[in-house]
Amino acid sequence: MTTTTVPTATRPGLRSWLVLMVSDMKMVSRDTAGLVIPIGLPMLILVMNGASAGTERLPNGLTVFDIYVLPLVLVMVVGTIGVINMPSFLSYYRRSGILKRLGVTPASPAMVLVAQVVVSFLQTLIGLALAIGVSMVAFSASLPLSLWTALGCFALACLAMYSVGMLVAAVSPTPNSSVAIGLILFFLLGALGGMFGGNEMLPDAVARVGEMLPFGAAVQALSAAWAGETPQLSHIIALVATTVISGAISAKFFRWE
Amino acid sequence: MPAIEVTQLHKRYRDTIAVDDVSLTVESGEVMGVLGRNGAGKTTTVETIAGIRRPDRGEVRVMGLHPIRQRRELRQVLGVQIQSAYLHGALTVRELVHLYRTFYPNPVDGAELIESVGLTDQRNQRFEKLSGGQQQRLSVALALVGNPQVVILDELTNGLDPEARRKIWALVERLRDRGVTILLVSHLMEEVERLCDRVALIDAGRVIAMDTPTGLIKQAGLTETVTFRAEAFDPSVFDRVAVINDVEVRGNQVTVAGAGDLLQAVSTALVTHGVIATETRLRQPTLDDAFLTLTGYTFTDSTEGSQ
Lengths: 257, 307
Hints:
The complex is a heterodimer. Chain A is mainly α. Helix content of chain A is 73%, strand content 0%. Chain A has one domain (33-252). Chain A is built from ten helices and no strands. The relative contact order of chain A is 0.14. In chain B, strands 5-6-7-3-8-9 form a six-stranded mixed beta sheet, with helices on both faces. The model of chain B is unreliable at 301-307 (pLDDT under 50). Chains A and B meet through helix 1 and helix 4 of A and helix 2 and helix 3 of B.
């Protein structure tokens, strides 16, 4: 102990990342109230939308519900959890001082952020699996015609939404403002992306911009995959670009308190 | 190379100057106390040393490392216990120690660490269910989990009962014996006198004195006093005694102030004059008295609001 060797910058290993993820998972699963949004919300949005959507079959055997409602609902769910729910969870960590304490350990901001995203994503998956199961039974929904493309688009949509959420958490000055900024941003992206009645109702130029933002791009890409078509490259690029840019900015501006 | 080197640190929050001009050096293996009233700038100083805050001016080096630019290297060797931190509330003591152990390349044994802060019986309890004192002890334990060479402890025995406090002191003494450098912010004079090799006294964002605990008392120029009871005492008994500066007689209670070997001088004079004295007591000035003299504030009064 008395030797004063110059310390080297060893990073915490993979095991440390896993233990942190498991810890965050325990935090969530031991707090039942925290499970309401990821598990309950998809169900609620689905039932509300499913009840009003038509069930007549299109030529490819799918329904309007499958092609328009289901992709929209999935993106709404990911958007809500990623852009609104996660920043508020992170701001709880920040406000309570958990982040401050982690900040004086060798744990990196990336570890904390990735653990949050993974745990949040797992909850989302459980919630969505339940929601899709219910809609297949109650609204005779079909699985996407291009299942793997749909899964890929969904994963991209998740990454994009979570990185936007991280950005919100990173740049908002106070915990309360992060919830407010998240809400505004979510509705803005949603409105431009066709959350309120399809983007055909928007002026052409606005709709074009909306399609290039993460919400609109995700809905379009998922919808295409459901119908068995290849998603447009521009939508995929929009999602990847959102992830990279927001992710980089949020890591740069991350604060421990 | 000193373990901690702070040069002309300055930090302000909006229009409040938290730290005006603080310089201090802590040698390797030394236990340095940081004393001061609330708002004197102690916590800002140690949080800047820990790399939590960025100073407006001045330089900080810990084991030769820049706390912000070389954050990753520093985190390997520096253990920090901060006041306003909280832990994952739903995790148990054992789970938290396990989590924090994985952050470090060379951690200490988890079960031994939990035992050393007396939490073995609570190891399966959630953090949020622990009492304030138990949470505090876990927080101290986690500062030591990575086998650090330098430890910062901010109010480490805050909210602890006397028994738990002694246990934590013993833990700090074991660290000191192993050669770990410790920077200890404290409110408790007893704690500082027992644990610290040197003390930095901070007031209004400046170091106003830095010395050993006994050195600080000397600096304050305080004298020892001897008190005793004697019937119809005549103060002229002490007329020719060189070390005595002042004699005060109040009824049969006599107080003699002076420096040097006061007790010996008083006893000799009393015996020579055949005075029968009872309840003879020597009162040496404490760090508390020195604090009062050096800052103009009573230490105990100034800290009451925060407890």
